[in-house]
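User: Run a structure prediction on this.
Assistant: Running it now.
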Amino acid sequence: MINKIDYCTNRTITGSFQDIEEIVKFIKNPPPENKELVEYARTIERDSKEYRTIKISKLPAISINFSFSHGYLKGDNISTSTGYLYIDVDGKTEQDLEINTAYICAYWRSLSNTGLTLVVKVDGLTPDNFKTATQEIANVLDIPFDKRAVSIDRLTVLSYDPNAYYNDNVEVFPVTELVSEQSVELSSTGSKNFRNTIIKDNSLIGIHCNGKIGIRYNNLDDVTQGMEIIYDDNGIYDCGQDKVKYHTAFMPKRVSEGNREKTLGLYAKRLLFLNPDLDKKTLSKMIFRANMINLQTPLESSEVRGIINKTFDNRQNSRTNKTKRFFFEDVTLTAVEKSRKCLEVLNQERKQKTQEKKNIISELFCNWDCHTDGKVSPKKVMELTGLKKTMVYNYFRDNKDSVPNCDNP
């Protein structure tokens, strides 16, 4: 569900689109008054007052990345991911870019007709990983995206483009896998089995991986020390479903009021678990700094001290909170190169799983008896196979000739 508002200066939700396909149809054939406004805007200067008025006060807009609750489109009201990610390209169109249609499910011209709105399918997008995911996916696709147009409640004005592109059959970016692979930096020593943990000096300024004793933010080195890592021909070791579980101390940004105490407490707890000899003074500096920088509304000093004292005096074992699936033989690979390698494996795995599901339906149809099983329907197939609605309906749509015809058995 993609929320729509009447114009940018009023974020009250007035409607919605089911998916990107509906939006592309709108872009191709908008109401006459919208089309006329867009065409007129393209004849005037972009920095003029008249152009800005059309853009923010006269044309409908959408927020592609997330759905919103409480009838109002703002960051605090985020409900769920739409399954799509929007990337804004300024100053370049489809004529200037090499668009990878294996991943990009839609694109259309911007209001100015000099830029593009690009849309990809994603799985696992959250407000916390949104910015990192946008940057990683744009880098993987080699898209010169507009970094100023990256925010969780970013609006996209509905323009007009008779040549708007849409393709539902694209690869899905697995955001959780993609982002998690970038969360642990690799050592530059060339070691195949040991990866230095990121550490910071006691001033908490600057990051170095030179082997000095410092504060640990994860224990990946420890848990992988005894692993037998055998790389494939592409230089990848894939743990598959048996991902490496490890501990990490991570402080998210923009922590809301309802989660402040819990988030700071967990951060302090994990720091102490990873650094048993950490003194109280250093821990206090780190927690107070996180309180000021990472919380939307910082806690009172007395509350922060209470969290520190409780954590320091009542130490407990911490559960693993991070997993890692892929390891790379070439430790000089850039984040983009690693992402591309991960995607190749993940997309091949996804195709294989999709084919396995198709085979289940195919076998069901081969053994279907209209006299005893009755008429075939997507609902029956879902009940018998446990497969999801999208998978079953897509199979019916794409394989009409293989569906048993019980009307004329």
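The longest helix spans residues 335-366.
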